Amino acid sequence: MDFIFTSLPTNLTELMELPEAILNSPYKTAAITLVVLCNYGNDPGSTFEMLDFLKGPENVSEYEKQFIRERLKGKEYKTFSYFKGATPENGYTPIKPYTVSVSENPYSFPDENWATLYVKSSGADSPRGIKLRKKPSTGQWFLNDIQCLSDIRIPVVDDPWA
Known about the structure:
Number of strands: 5
Structural class: alpha+beta
Mean pLDDT: 97
């Protein structure tokens, strides 16, 4: 399923204006998670505030914040690698409007209120997961675990062996 964004939110107010922010589908929540993570290099504080919204009744833990810091420090290009047009050759610069594809596999919905959906980075060989949890009382899907921040191929401009 493809999601198209004309711009990337930089704060919670902008995030809430996106139609996907109703979180009524695990696909929307997965897509919007990537959009939010793209802001990390500009403003980690606002990014964590937006992730708190995506986590629903929970907040981003200190452990999760440290995990994100470690995975993205100096490698903010990782989050952009999931968008259409971003490649190692162009420094993972996506084409606009920003388009991200979210997919499932036969094991994506192991239980009624849980899902792991997948996004494909142009710098990795296999799709990476985003784990989500449904809140039955509201029907909303919330972020549970970001599993897509593993290392990818570095941009060609930074690769001494390119």
